[in-house]
Structure formats: C-alpha cells, structure tokens
Amino acid sequence: MLNMRRFGKGVDEPVWIEVLNAARKDHEDWRAISVEEMLLQEKHPEFDFEGRFIAELDGKLAGVAHAHVDKLRKDGKGLIRFDVIPEFRGRGIERQLIETALRELKVRGMTTAQAWADSRERDHIQLLETLEFKHVRVGSMMEIDFANVSRNIGENKEVAIRPLQKDLDEDITLFNWLINETFEEHFNYRPETLEETRHFLFSNPYLKEQEVFFAVLNGESIGYIGVGIDEKYNLEKKVKAGEVFTIGVLKTCRRTGIGVRLMLHGLESLKVKGMTSAMLGVDDYNPTKAIRLYEKVGFRA
Ligand SMILES: CC(C)(COP(=O)(O)OP(=O)(O)OC[C@H]1O[C@@H](n2cnc3c(N)ncnc32)[C@H](O)[C@@H]1OP(=O)(O)O)[C@@H](O)C(=O)NCCC(=O)NCCS
C-alpha cells in the first residue's frame, strides 16, 4: 500500500537524503549529499520548509516530492521536484507525488506550477506532459578541458580584475547589486536578497574554495565571475574539475570582450588550484546567449 506523508523537520532529513542519493545515483553529474549538507541548505534565508512529502510503499521508502513556494516571488508560481528510487519506478508513485504536490501548491495560493525534470528521464517528461505541463526551458551542462581553452579571442585587455574580499561588506553589497542588474531579464528572475548572497558566499554546502572576481573599468566594477570547487564531487568522480557558478557583465558594457576576459581569469584561477577542467550549467534559452560565450572559450555540452 502507498502511504504519502509530510516531511518531519528535524527528523526526516536522513530519509530525504537516502531517497535523493538512491534516486539520482545513476546521474553522471550527481554526487552523494550528506545530512549535514542538507541542514546547511535549510539555513538558506528563503528555504521553504513546507510542502515536502515522502512516499512509502508497503513500509519501504520509495520517493519524495517538494512543492516549493518562494515567498519572495510575486507571480504565483510554485516549483515541484520529485524523485523516485529506481526499483519503485513505473508503479504510479511519480504521478501520486506530482498530484500531491499540485494540491499543496494550490492550497498555498499558487496559480501556476513549474516542475523540474532531467531530460534523460523521458518517462518523467512524458508523465508531466500528460498532466498538461508544457516544456518551457532546457538547461545544459558544459565542460572544458584546460588544454582546450581558446585565447586571443577578443578578450578585453583594458579591464582590471580584482578579487571580492569576503570580509568587506561593500564588496558583498556590490556583488549582490551586480547579480541583480545582470540577471534581471532572465527567466524566473526575482531580486536576490543580500542575505541570500551572503549565504551563498559563506554557507554554501557544496562549493568550497569559491572565489569571485570583479572586472573594473575606469574605477567602476562592471562585471564579475564566480568559480569554486566541489571537493566531494571530485573525489567521487575521480576528476579535478572546478565550477563556474556565475558570470555577468553590465548591459552597457557587453560585447566588448569583458565576459571572455573574466572567463579566462576564472579558469586560470581554478588551474592554479590544481584543477584540470571546469564545468558550468547554462539555460539554453538564456536571453543574452551566454552559451555563445562559453563555446567561444571552448566549453562543450
Ligand atoms: C553572458 C554575458 C556574461 C556575456 O558578457 P559579454 O561581456 O557581453 O561577453 P563578450 O563581449 O566577452 O562576448 C564574447 C563572445 O560571446 C558571444 N556572445 C556574447 N553575447 C552574445 C549575444 N548576445 N549574442 C551572440 N553572441 C554573443 C560572441 O561570440 C562574443 O564575441 P563577439 O562580440 O566578438 O561576437 C553577458 O551577456 C551577461 O552578463 N548576461 C547576463 C548574465 C548571464 O546570463 N550570465 C550567464 C548565466 S549562465
């Protein structure tokens, strides 16, 4: 018998982690996460503690779903994520998790549901389509081997690069302001709060050794790049891969080679730390066509 129950905060974190790790272990870009990391994630200033469900089949853990509400979003959209352990797939549990999450979003005042699905899980996508979800976005992971980095491709040589100093409040405020200026035209954008930027810089459970660099032109910071290293990922996958987690250039300064310059600097800083490759995630429909910049530098999907 299928039992759907609510997540118990402070009790069910190990259960949640067990399902996620079992459900995603065959994803090549997934690495096992720990309860401690989940607890750090829960410290995110806007973490939504409600709307989490656990599915058990005949007393055995089978799946989880989170009907996520972002209180700072004003558009009435909630986000559903669901995972089912492989041995329990194809028995209708996915559908019940989604339907439970949809009811939950409705009760919480949401008017639209978005759901996240991995493109390799065709059955999940088909199921969402039968429930009237429409495809709105596709994302890709891209990688670059440092041996294949292209140089002399129009990088701007006039800008200076300086690191963000984490002990300087004005640097954190500047980073937060730049993020919001540069991402405002993006899908699902809502302003990132200063607390969220701080959380990311100081309490990020996954990326250690993260650094942010500013591009400075005539004394003004006009762009940034953030890079970091997920040591556990590297250990598990036996790679030395760094991660580019963000990049942005103010609108008025785009298409002058600053993005390339920042990217080359960020990759070099990862190389200095012993990395041999880097990866990043990109929205294929990014309105500023960031994917073109990545391809120009040598990243491949
Ligand atoms: C993506 C972004 C960082 C690019 O910065 P940039 O300083 O304009 O990039 P560059 O001038 O170095 O561009 C280098 C090359 O990338 C490609 N490129 C960049 N923007 C492009 C666009 N809008 N359309 C087509 N190609 C583009 C071009 O090949 C360009 O070279 P070219 O100008 O000689 O043709 C910038 O548009 C931005 O801040 N976007 C918003 C934030 C964002 O989306 N970040 C990425 C999240 S994944």
Q: Overview of this structure, please?
A:
There is one protein chain. 33% of the residues lie in helices and 26% in strands. It has 301 residues and is an alpha+beta fold. It has two domains: 2-136, Aminopeptidase; 141-297, 3-Layer(aba) Sandwich (Aminopeptidase), CATH 3.40.630.30. The radius of gyration is 20 Å and the shape is globular. The model has no long low-confidence stretch (mean pLDDT 96). It binds coenzyme A. Coenzyme A (COA) binds next to α5, β10, α8 and α9.
Number of domains: 2
**Average pLDDT, all residues:** 96
Compute the CA-based radius of gyration: 20 Å
How helix-rich are the residues, as a percent range? 25-40%
The largest sheet, given as strand count, sense and whether it forms a barrel, is:
6 strands, mixed
Properties at a glance:
301 residues; alpha+beta; Aminopeptidase; 2 domains; six-stranded mixed beta sheet; five-stranded mixed beta sheet; 9 helices; 11 strands; binds coenzyme A
Per-chain topology:
Blueprint: E1 2-6, H1 13-24, H2 35-41, E2 52-57, E3 60-68, E4 77-84, H3 93-107, E5 112-115, H4 122-130, E6 139-145, E7 160-163, H5 169-183, H6 194-203, E8 208-217, E9 220-229, H7 231-237, E10 241-249, H8 258-272, E11 277-283, H9 290-297
Parallel strand pairs: 4-5, 10-11
Antiparallel strand pairs: 1-2, 2-3, 3-4, 6-11, 7-8, 8-9, 9-10
Helix pairs in contact: 8-9
Bound molecules: coenzyme A.
Coenzyme A binds at residues 154, 182-183, 247-249, 254-260, 282, 286, 288-290, 292-293, 296.
